[in-house]
Amino acid sequence: MVTVLGTLGFHEEKFLPAILATPNVSRVILCYAPGETPEKERKVQLALHRVRRALSGTRAALTEVKLANPWDVSGMLTTFLEELGREGPDNCVFNLTGGTKPMAVAATLACLVTGTKAVYVPEESERPDLIELPLPAIMIRSLLTPSQAKLLRVVAEHEFSSEKDLAEYLRRSAPTVCYHVERLRQVGAISEGGTEDRRIVQPRITKTGEVLLLLHERLRTNARKSGETIRNIPTDR
């Protein structure tokens, strides 16, 4: 039996083909976001109604997941990974056609890190032909070292007035912390807010940093389950 996940925008005709073209569908998980205006909300509710009506004559159970923010990639990625974790990636197909572009980005990342089969209905095509996307589980290594992941996690949970304060909190030397902050800044995981004293910077996690941390935690969980050691691209220090 197969579970079909999908992101829904304003047009149900981009959501339904993946269900109709997939054999042995036992469950459909529909992820959608509220409209930002009354008109957009009306379109969302109309698309939801049409999906419900189309599935009412099938044996597939429908689960609706309301996303908090259609622009928050890290938040949506968390939701998608949780749903895939419950269902099992090998038993899922993810239709990432509908919804906002950030929804598609989050869904693509979830498929890459879990190896979930991804499909797409070309919006440019007059026919709703289903296309399987070549998204192998290629994210087998984390961009973060254990030390960098710990630093990023701490920065996500606390505010620091300077790198010196961060180093004191971590009980690491200032040069070591400076090194890791610079590496994280280079990959877009940390931004450095300024103060009146330009020599002092305040490390802050970015949206990219939130995504990298999520993926790192996912890979670490996978490594624990398989009994392997998580591998990293950078050399730790």
Secondary structure topology:
Blueprint: E1 2-8, H1 16-20, E2 25-32, H2 38-55, E3 61-66, H3 73-87, E4 92-95, H4 101-114, E5 117-120, E6 131-133, H5 146-157, H6 163-170, H7 174-186, E7 190-194, E8 201-205, H8 207-226
Helix pairs in contact: 3-4, 3-8, 5-7, 5-8, 6-7
Description:
By secondary structure, this protein is α/β, with parallel strands linked by helices. The protein starts with a strand and ends in an 11-residue tail after the last helix. It has helices spanning 16-20, 38-55, 73-87, 101-114, 146-157, 163-170, 174-186, 207-226; strands at residues 2-8, 25-32, 61-66, 92-95, 117-120, 131-133, 190-194, 201-205. It folds into 2 domains: 2-133, Rossmann fold (3-Layer(aba) Sandwich); 140-237, Winged helix-like DNA-binding domain superfamily/Winged helix DNA-binding domain (Arc Repressor Mutant, subunit A). The longest helix is centred in the last third of the chain and has 20 residues, at 207-226. It is built from 8 helices and 8 strands; from the N terminus they run βαβαβαβαββαααββα. The strands form 2 sheets. It has a 6-stranded mixed β-sheet with strand order 3-2-1-4-5-6. A two-stranded antiparallel sheet has the order 7-8.
